[in-house]
Write a structure and sequence with these properties.
Layout: E1 7-11, H1 16-27, E2 31-36, H2 41-49, E3 54-58, H3 64-78, E4 83-86, H4 101-129, E5 132-137, H5 141-144, H6 150-170, E6 175-182, H7 188-191, H8 195-202, H9 213-224, E7 235-238
Helix pairs in contact: 1-9, 3-4, 4-6
The structure holds 1,4-dihydronicotinamide adenine dinucleotide.
């Protein structure tokens, strides 16, 4: 129970990797606020099964007023925010020549601006408490690129730069900021890939299998805990060895 009585926010926690992170942080003892555009009923039920408190808030992370309201509500309920996991993310893939401006904007808004808005909103309570953990879910695509994903790769590379800059800004306040770069993880986002695409990807993964949302959640739990007190500004790849720096 490394997070006993802490309060953690997980954006995009209604399903997939965000749901696994929310559940894992709850199992470590944290109260969880899930902020998602879709209902988070399943995640709340899973967390409550483990005897932890969960609050589901309907939030579009691209809207500053909704983000601020959510943070106010969480502070009113629990009086503290220890951990923020910026997990919500989307893809709108296309070759650059065919990419619509609206698909560029939407991906950058959700994946990058959403993390900016949420991080800004939680910083005051974290600075006051002189402690905090911000964990950004990036992607190996932000490190290695991927054809058809210029918008997504730019957003995830941006998130890694954001992580390093914010880590430097708030280190003296006792707040750490790190990224996780998942590789190929089983989820709704990757279910849409064809068998051929899957095989081509697996051929590049030294560990030879698809990752699970729980693999990402385990690293998030570590970064959220005191075990990671001396780790900041880092990007941890959870990718079966796909990218080795
Ligand atoms: P997912 O599509 O299953 O879940 C994303 C969640 O974010 C959904 O619950 C969705 O409702 C929510 N969301 C989307 N737009 C939102 C908005 N504007 N405001 C609030 N919530 C919003 O995706 P998955 O696979 O669980 O991915 C989670 C994160 O991990 C994303 O940032 C993704 O880019 C990243 N990732 C996923 C990989 C994979 O293989 N699945 C690989 C690398 C990174």
């Amino acid at each position: 129970m490394r997070l006993a009585n802490k309060v953690a926010i997980v954006t995009g926690g209604a399903r997939g990797i965000g749901q696994a992170i929310a559940l894992r942080l709850a199992k470590e003892g944290a109260h969880i606020a899930i902020c998602d555009v879709q209902p988070s009923t399943d995640t709340v039920a899973l967390i409550e099964e483990h005897g932890q408190a969960a609050l589901a808030l309907k939030v579009d992370i691209t809207k500053e007023s909704q983000v601020k309201e959510a943070v106010d509500e969480i502070m009113a309920k629990w009086g503290r925010i220890d951990v923020l996991v910026n997990n919500a993310g989307i893809t709108r893939d296309n070759l650059l020549l065919r990419m619509k401006e609206s698909d560029w904007d939407l991906v950058l808004d959700v994946n990058l601006k959403g993390a900016f808005l949420f991080s800004q909103a939680v910083l005051r309570p974290m600075i006051r408490a002189r402690q905090g953990r911000i964990i950004n879910i990036a992607s190996v695509v932000g490190l290695m690129g991927n054809p058809g994903q210029t918008n997504y790769a730019a957003s995830k590379a941006g998130l890694i730069g954001f992580t390093k800059s914010l880590a430097r800004e708030v280190a003296s306040r006792g707040i750490t900021v790190n990224s996780i770069a998942p590789g190929f993880i089983a989820s709704d986002m990757t279910d849409v890939l064809s068998e051929a695409q899957r095989k081509a990807l697996m051929d590049q993964v030294p560990l030879g299998e698809i990752g699970l949302p729980e693999d990402v959640a385990a690293v998030a739990a570590f970064l959220a805990s005191d075990d990671a007190r001396y780790v900041t500004g880092q990007t941890v790849n959870v990718d079966g060895g796909l990218v080795m720096d």
